[in-house]
Amino acid sequence: MSRNVLGVYNLTEASFSQGARLTLVDGPLELGWRHSGLTSDFIAEAMALPFFGSRALHTNIRHNIGYLSNELIENAVKFRQPGKIVIEACVVDGTFLMRVCNKINAETSGKFQEILINMLSVDPGELLIRQIEANAVSDTGGSGLGLLTLLADYDARMSWEFETSNDDRVRLTTTASLALPLTSNR
């Protein structure tokens, strides 16, 4: 088994012992995109609940957590191989942490690692602008704007761990951290 980590290495060691754990599985639910929004809304509301004392702060935190959660879950649903998706989330010392683990095939893993290496070697803000411009003149889809927006506009810290076994399936573990605002902007 081989292991490759891209991004912020120490995030792979983050503890989720005091958070929520959800597992999405194939079956009668016909796991699809609609589950991304529902699941991310649930996570955002659950994690933002302690901040309900200030409506503006709660709304801001809920939005930030919801955006990050939706992007990570959507990617896991979109590119996964059959099997479960494990989602862990917690808030520790003013930081939201999320981990999403799913299986992808070796070809997808290789392409994604190339994209990440390119993405992590350039300023995310510059790359975001270039990608927006490229998308404006192309209709190819698969924009990659979600991860770039998280890195450039939300200052998310992220890691991607690829664990390759002897078959064609790769276990992908994506971990993200997002500093939460501690005061309201309104």
Topology:
Elements: E1 2-7, E2 20-24, H1 33-48, H2 55-79, E3 85-92, E4 95-105, H3 106-120, H4 124-137, H5 145-152, E5 157-164, E6 169-179
Antiparallel strand pairs: 1-5, 2-3, 3-4, 4-6, 5-6
Largest sheet: 6 strands, antiparallel
Strand order of the largest sheet: 1-5-6-4-3-2
Oligomer: single chain
Shape: globular
Number of strands: 6
Can you tell me about this structure?
The chain is α+β, with helices and mostly antiparallel strands. Helix content is 42%, strand content 26%. The protein has 5 helices and 6 strands. Strands 1-5-6-4-3-2 form a 6-stranded antiparallel sheet, covered by helices on one side. A hairpin with a 2-residue loop joins β3 and β4. α1 runs antiparallel to α2 and α4 runs antiparallel to α5. It is globular and about 50 Å long. The N and C termini lie far apart (51 Å).
Keywords:
6-stranded antiparallel β-sheet; 26% strand; 186 residues; 5 helices; globular; alpha+beta
Provide a quick synopsis of the model.
This protein is an alpha+beta fold and 186 residues long. It has helices at residues 33-48, 55-79, 106-120, 124-137, 145-152, and strands at residues 2-7, 20-24, 85-92, 95-105, 157-164, 169-179.
